[in-house]
Amino acid sequence: MRLFRLAKIASVSLRFGLDRMLLDVDASGRLGRLWTLVFFWRRFDQPRAVRLRLALESLGPIFVKFGQMLSTRRDLLPPDLADELALLQDRVPPFPTAQALAVLEGFYGRPVDMVFRNFERTPVASASVAQVHFAELPDGTEVAVKILRPGINRVIVNDLALMDVAAMVLEKLWPESRRLKPREVVAEFSKYLRDELDLMREAANCSQLRRNFKDSSLLLVPEVYWDWCGREVMVMERMHGLPVSQIAALTAQGTDLSALSRAGVEIFFTQVFRDGFFHADMHPGNIFVHADGRYIALDFGIMGTLNEVDKNYLAQNFLAFFKRDYKRVAMAHIEAGWVPAKTRVDEFEAAIRTVCEPIFDKPLKDISFGKTLLRLFQTARRFEMEVQPQLVLLQKTLLNIEGLGRQLDPELDLWKTAKPFLERWMNEQMGWRALVRGVKEEAPGWANTLPQLPRLVHHALAESTRLQAEQNRQFDRLYARQRRHGRLLALVGLLAAALLALELHRLFG
User: In the Enzyme Commission scheme, what number(s) does this protein have (predicted)?
Assistant: First the structure.
């Protein structure tokens, strides 16, 4: 099986000239010239980025997903490759309904028509990992049933093993390619893909996001029906709306596109800075719009998380950048620990200024947050900044949000929309508001701890006394040992002196 798959990969690589792209890594060019002599008849009319995208599409869904993930690693890929790979879509034919029914019957232990009042045999969506069917629960509730593609685990294991071997061979044959970290990229993809294979994880992500936006006037998230869920099956509320990419249809139903674009920005920054938990796959296929103008989020396989350090870093960077306070941007990287503490602030500041200052020749509405963040990452890499996976996901999502927002409203000023939110968040993190919030968060713990303080103080004092007594005993033992050693040394000295005196008396009478 793997040999056949390997032969297909080699064949597709030669057909689209991927070997030429690898040989371009060789700085000497000798291998490239030799290869050209061997395959002298080949001519390629399309750019290398297009050929790479077409090759990945030919190799199937797992390689398509790999290309999608690579498109987010703009810190590693040249811009032409990253831009082209971002065009990859999961154009995967649905698997037969008989297989879907077999998965469901194997999971529920009974025929599908005994589980659901109605189950639509024709899938409404199909991707590389799963497909979706509409159904009704016994009480008539409309649901969407997501079913893992049969045999996908075996396909993934085989393809990941081949990718890892290819990455290892690439590092061995072309040492220059190591700066692209191919094995680390494959390992990152492996984790990202295996997470998508557990639909219980996706269901938990969906449930968390729904809880975060409970009663929101901006975003709808489907409810999860846990009694019908498992690793291979996820059942959630069926959502009704129009795909966000259908601009004409949205306009026809009376949706305010300008308000919709601003709401998308607010939803993103709310997820990032309020919750530290964000939908990291917000391409148009995963976003619908309800008739009342609210967004509908779908597909929760890829979620990003940020801790307080990450959030503080991002907020300080955004605010400092638009104030042209490049020293503050440099210090934010150092304080977060993402560049070495030994980094010279003035040199780092100058590098950031060189990248960012030309941007301010443009109107603020034309400045891309996502590309700005990317430029900062690329500059920081020169100062030994390690790749932060959570920020790579964030940057990908931010680019998606920007593209979507400006598709809805070309005049969208992202900075004007986001700045009040960022400033409000920063104010809440500092000063008396932060103090009050901290007291509220800690108060329940204090209520449990205060009654125990006398006992804890007594215990601490008793423990301190015990330790002091033990130290005194150890000191006394050490002192006694040293005295014994001193007496022994004195005795040895006297004995040596007596022997020396006897020897002198014998020699000189």
Answer: 2.7.-.-
> What is the reported pTM?
0.73
What are 219's strand-pairing partners? 295
Please check if 157 is assigned to a binding site. Answer: no
**Annotated catalytic residue, options 75, 159, 281, 299:** 281
Rounded to the nearest 10 degrees, the angle between the axes of helix 414-429 and helix 308-322 is 130
- Pick left, alpha or beta for residue 337 (phi over 0 → left; psi -120 to 50 → alpha; otherwise beta): left
The yes-or-no answer on residue 281 being catalytic is yes
Tell me phi and psi for residue 290, to 5 degrees.
-75, 160
Q: Rounded to whole angstroms, how far apart are CA atoms 481 and 478?
A: 5
185 carries a ligand binding annotation: no
Closest CA to 285 of 94, 479, 123, 127: 127
Are 272 and 209 in contact, with CB atoms under 8 Å apart? no
Rounded to 5 degrees, φ, ψ at 39 are -110, 55
CA dist., res. 217 & res. 208, Å (int): 17
Buried b (16+ CB within 10 A) or exposed e, 143-178: bbbbbbbeebeebbebbbebbbebbeebbeebeebe
165 known member of a binding site: no
Token pair 């296929």: residue = 285
Length of the chain: 509
Quote the percentage of the chain above a pLDDT of 90. 25
